[in-house]
Specification:
With about 550 residues, this protein is of the alpha/beta class. The protein has three domains: about 220 residues, 3-Layer(aba) Sandwich (Rossmann fold); about 160 residues, Phosphofructokinase domain (Rossmann fold); about 80 residues, Arc Repressor Mutant, subunit A (Orthogonal Bundle), CATH 1.10.10.480. It is about 40% helix and about 15% strand. It is built from 22 helices and 16 strands. A hairpin with a 2-residue loop joins strand 15 and strand 16. Bound molecules: 1,6-di-O-phosphono-beta-D-fructofuranose. 1,6-di-O-phosphono-beta-D-fructofuranose (FBP) binds next to loops.
Amino acid sequence: MLKKQCNASELQIERAKFKPVLPEVLKNGLNGMTIVKGKSTKSIADQEKVKELFKNTYGLPIVTFKKGKNKTFKNKAIKVAVVLSGGQAPGGHNVIAGLFDGLKKINKKNTLIGYLGGPSGILNNKYQKITADVLRDYRNTGGFDYIQSGRTKIETSEQFCSTKDNLAICNVNALVVVGGDDSNTNAAMIAEYLKEQGIDKCVIGIPKTIDGDLKNKYIETSFGFDTATKIYSELVGNICRDANSARKYWHFVRLMGRSASHITLEVGFKTQPNIVLIGEEILAKNMTLSKVVDGIVDVIVKRSKAGKDFGIILVPEGVIEFIPEIKELISALNDILSDNKDEFSNLDSMEDKKEFVCKKLSEKLSALMLELPVGIASQVMSERDPHGNVSVSLIETEKLLIEMVRKKLSELKRDGQYTGKFSSITHFFGYEGRCGMPSNFDANYTYALGYNAAMLVLSGFTGYMSYIQHLTKPTKNWECGGLPLTMMMNIEKRSGKEKPVIQKALVDLKGRPFKEFTKNRDKWTIGENYLFPGPIQYFGPKDITEMTTKTLQYEQIKK
Ligand code: FBP
């Protein structure tokens, strides 16, 4: 029962009673499982360079937990720290709950602390003891508000040293990092550093990000993707119905997904709007911004000729970085901004900033910069996050597209090729979905990820990510284990320098989900095949409450 009932909604109170289902293999904790180790692994690319940088944690085997008897396990009480890192994703609190329950199941004296405000909490030694009493109010809730999150990157030798010292001050045996590709890169570097220093402490990562771009054969999806896409799909479905009722607006909906277009593809499947842009396809076809706009205009004109001056278009926020000329511009700006940080930050006006970067850009890129609308030009120059990423959530790509579409349509109108009326409305759905109450899938998945992480830590593994597999099967049949973090790494240029990072998983244009999309999208263009998925269902028929994403379903259909 919720402790602070006066502060909780009816749904919160009901939801607090939900008991996540554990995979069978985890039910008896370490006493009921054997640990199977596979062969030594390699990084996804740049093997020699990654191996050189991770001398102590490279090549670890994949670990699988199977039902059986664990003969080697020593039950000594330990203290674990957890940190939530990067953007919020539904289910973070259940990771903490799973970790807490997993630790307590094995030994009541095991304890858990949470570093506050993300990795900066480790550096400033700001933490809080996780207690059963307080945790009760956060089980099955969205958000990261129990211990909050942050985007600090741990990268300098001073920062690694204070991480080591602060873990020692707190007497912590293990650190669990809940994060996306960048945060888990941090986890891999801390694991390597501690090993190199001869310190016997474990570091385990948990795959989190609504963007869905932290995935591979073992990490079938990152947590939060399921809930966030269900929330966005409800909203987009409602807009589809409104558009079809009023029949007077073109809705340009930008969706979160910093790099990959997984969110947009999934919402596309669930709502079947008229146009769905996929950044990865735009890049593969080397489409310029003008070509992308031509494609949109083509559909608008066709629908207008059929008497339909309305429609819905989905735009992934990361699309901007996939358009070749803008990708080149952003990459050049990354270097300029990182090499001239102080000088640039002393410039006050937008005009001065634009002039400053234009002088340093090539002629071609400087011309492009000058062509961009003022708002967009200022957004592409905005401050990078500590991992060197441009803040695409602040770039209003949908407005740029509308401006260009409007221009082309008026040219067509002048030439008598278009007689319709173009009225547009913009939407951006991102923050609306990141802290939603986790779906049953995410509530179970995150709890299992946390519980499984407890088993990895208690078995003494370090430099691993907690993985749960076979996610379209019933929860009790999910398989669990640990995946070496270095296996997912490659070398990339960040803030102008080569860095080891976990490679992002983009939409695979040869993969089943994208193929399903291309089979259907023409139908969606001219017709009104809209679907209205409605809100997430927590109670009721299992077909609805246990439904996984379409992406996962397509990926796991037997070939
Ligand atoms: P993570 O990869 O850290 O989970 O965050 C992803 C994301 O939600 C993106 O979709 C979005 O572009 C970004 O965070 C927004 O960042 P911020 O929270 O710093 O505004």
